[in-house]
Amino acid sequence: MMRLAIVLALYSFNAIYAPNQASIALTLPVLILVLVGLGKIRSPNLQIGDMFWFCVFIFFAISPLQRMGDGTIGGDWTVTRHAYDAAEYITAMAIVVVFLLPFGFISMEAKDPDTTTATPPAEWMLALNILAFSLFVVLQGGWQQVLLPRLDKTWSEASALSEAFLALQTVTTAVLVANARAAGRTWSLVTLVAVAIGLLAITRNPFNASRFSLLAAWVPVGLAMLRGRLQAAWFYAVALFALLVLFPILSITTRLGLVGLGQVEDIDFADNLLSTPFVDIFDTTVHAVRFMSTHDWMLGEKLLAVGLFFVPRALWPNKPIVGGLDIGGDLLNGGMAGTDNLSFFIGADAYMDFGFVGVVMGGLLLALFTAQASASRLGSFYGVSLLHAVIIASLPIMLRGPVGAVLPLAACQIVILIILSRTEWRQPLPEPAGDRL
């Protein structure tokens, strides 16, 4: 009931101030889907479904309510003042609803995690952690590259490969934290955890990493500290604070580094209440509809680009690009965006490939995968489901997209968790012992 009350209150507040009342009718199907999805969750704690439906709600209900006016989408953020007709709006929302409909029929609530086994010894985890950190720094191009703000970094195929070692570093840090919480805060374990957290703070911090990669790195660690249990009410409070206050600040500091702190005072946080910043995913979905009205179906090209993200372009120069770059490039060339690096919904990739047939099939397949992942006990260590923590942390950027550009870190984290879940690596949970702090 608490979940539904929060969503209804936020929707009602934004509907009252919506610049175009037609947006209420347009977004009602998404609101109903969100209410159905959240209504299926019985646990008082944060679940995969909480993050999934909250993101859907913000991206496809709140954002259109706030941004649609006089036949245009946008205003202050990224895609600005581009006029579309009603059919384009309706088609875009149909893509969203049809793709997400299967998710309303599945459970995204976790089973109790495996509490009987653990991972290899903590010393092994720290050794892997230090190795991953070292290789990440080397592949990034050295210390200077690692510590630079995002806008100042130079990227290469080698730096792209570093995502695998960042994934190993984040996973082993979370495992060490879960170990310490289960075995008792002994001096030895706390020392190992402190080293791992210190190294992660170097590779992923508010002055050198994107907002969403910070989530992917630190949310699993935070949930491990909480033994995988965070009250859902706290999640919604923190999520709203992050959306309206923290993310606008991080948008500056991650791009400009410490220098960006001087611009924080220019942020109008009150204005964010009715104009959620940096949420342009419905905008680009609408433009994808217009784009495809003058282009042939891509016949699998976009989904292939997403699925084969791990193939370096150096080995496949003609590798297809994700749909988000097509749409971003079109908007950039038309003077409607400042960059082609815009968010893009995976359902729109499916639409660009096969029309609504692709949307239906893509939604079904991803819903089945999500249901399997939600029910899985793989990736559970010391009574904490780190697999679910990784999925929760990755959902905002995976839903926001473009998926092909953001999939590597999450995919590598999941593969590493599956490898660590192998029986031969496991041992009984340790009894709490040792000199306590």
UniProtKB/TrEMBL annotation:
Signal peptide: none annotated. It comes from the Bacteria. This is Uncharacterized protein. The keyword tRNA-binding does not apply. Keywords: Membrane, Transmembrane, Transmembrane helix. The chain crosses the membrane at residues 24-41, 48-66, 86-106, 126-146, 158-179, 186-203, 209-226, 233-252, 350-369, 381-399, 405-421.
